[in-house]
User: What shape does this take?
Amino acid sequence: MPKPLSPETVQIVKASVPALAAHGADITKSMYARLFRDDHIRELFNHANQGDDGSQVNALAAAIVAYAQNIDNLGVLGPVVERIAQKHIGYHILPDHYPFVATALLAAIEDVLASAATPALLNAWGEAYWFLADVLKEREAEIRSELLERSGGWNGWRDFVVETKVRESDVVTSFVLRPKDGGPVARHKPGQYLTLRFQLENGQEIKRNYSISSGPNDLFYRISVKREAQGQGGSRHLHDQAAVGTVLSVTPPAGDFFLPEAPQAPVVLLSGGVGLTPMVSILETIAKEHPNLEAHFVHGALNSGTHAMDRHVRKLANAHGKIRISSFYSAPSSEDAVGLSHDFDGFITAEWLRQNTPIENAEFYLCGPKPFLRALVPALAREGVSSERVHFEFFGPSDELIAA
Assistant: This one.
């Protein structure tokens, strides 16, 4: 562990919380602007998260405030540290990159807070930054070491080839990826994601996280990607340009959202839209490795046109015997009918979960768009499900309402 923070630093950082709460987004916006002046630092980021809605700016601002509030009780930040460390593994963030962030952050604090950014405040935040940076670097070194110890493990970028490409619905396509070098792959934890690096037609290089939708194995990964009409074109490029034989650069499986090796309680998998992808990986694992585990796969989609992999998950459930599948359509088409294309009209609700799943003792895993999580995470809490039993994955930066 790094050297403990001085009492003076703790006091000054905690006293800065009101200013950070008021100006945090301005500070992080200024910080990113400074970072992105450097091309090699700019290339480390997923710029889809830097959009007009300010999601990454606000998420980082909230994280900085949380760090300041808990600077004298850092144990509560353990899950946040783990999530950040896993993201850094995915984007191949190295110790050499940390000084660039330190310089940009302190300059942004000084710029935004102006005269309030006294030398004592800047020194305290410099010490606080490097304390957290050292914690992260230690954890990232542990993760990299663990990856190299696994059969098929690697660090950094590795070339994979698109072996097969399967259309799963009108909007979702699966890609099976095998290493170009012909070697094995590291077995992922079911629920984790890959980070892909590829070049768009205009020459722009981008990085994107995609959940692994296959169960752990030694040979390949499968990702199942929704073609998004908006955004910078990552998913459209994969759908339209990444034919069989295309080479993509990939970092090792990462992420703190996954099924434990020996689940002890019933499992409820809740997904919305393409959020089903990590759930399919988890379901394949349960079907193969946990024959006595009770599981509920509850999925919400618009209609049969967007509903992916339904036959696959029902086949897994039928073979297992203790998996129940329930599908909800919020906008069924004229061809859709309850009992044929899906199980229920409408949205997944806490009331339905209370009546149809073992809500008193189950472990809940959720993945989907922010409105889906905003509705169900607090609803489960109101039903008495403790936060320790609610695990969720989200697309892009964490949402402050969910994180709270």
Notes: The chain is about 40% helix and 20% strand. Residues 399-404 have pLDDT under 50 and may be disordered.
